[in-house]
Design goal:
Layout lengths: L1 E4 L4 E5 L4 E8 L2 E9 L5 E6 L5 E6 L3 E6 L5 E6 L5 E5 L14 E6 L3 E6 L4 E7 L6 E8 L2 E6 L4 E5 L4 E5 L10
Antiparallel strand pairs: 1-2, 2-3, 3-4, 5-6, 6-7, 7-8, 9-10, 10-11, 11-12, 13-14, 14-15, 15-16
Length: 179
Amino acid sequence: QELVTLPDDTIVCGGGDGSFTKLYGRDLTWQKVQDNRLDNTMVKSMSLVANGRELLVSCASGAVYRCAIENLQPTLLNVSNTSAVTCIAFPTVEYPSSSSSIYYFATGTRSGEIRLWDLTDYACVAAMKVPKAGGVLCLVMPEVDKVLSGWQDGSVRCSDTAGRQLWYLPTAHRDGNTA
């Protein structure tokens, strides 16, 4: 999906399966030098950093990585939602004083992703996606460690702050959840 040329007759190419490969050669003779895989989604773009020793690589999953050219080792820099945010929720209860600096909020998207974000550094700490359930139309955080979600397919789910589903009501509503 993406290709970056390096000054030493080496290229790095990204694939639709999240892999990226370093090749060396000229004309019709190429050898695979190294490869790696970021995640199971398409590599969307790659850009050589100004010093020429690293690549910035973005994937369809919303993740951006910094990868050393020398060994193709990735470091996750950032994650984002991949479609429009349809709802957001903050806990409806106060954080206990023992929770120190852990403050979360959740976002739901049109493509059916829920992400839990840490307010101290805005990092994504957990994510979940339910195939074929449609978009997330409403979210509530009734407790600091629980997220209730209403989906386009009419289901209601409860997950914890690690993104694990705790329970599921498949037919809570006939025409999807709206509020």
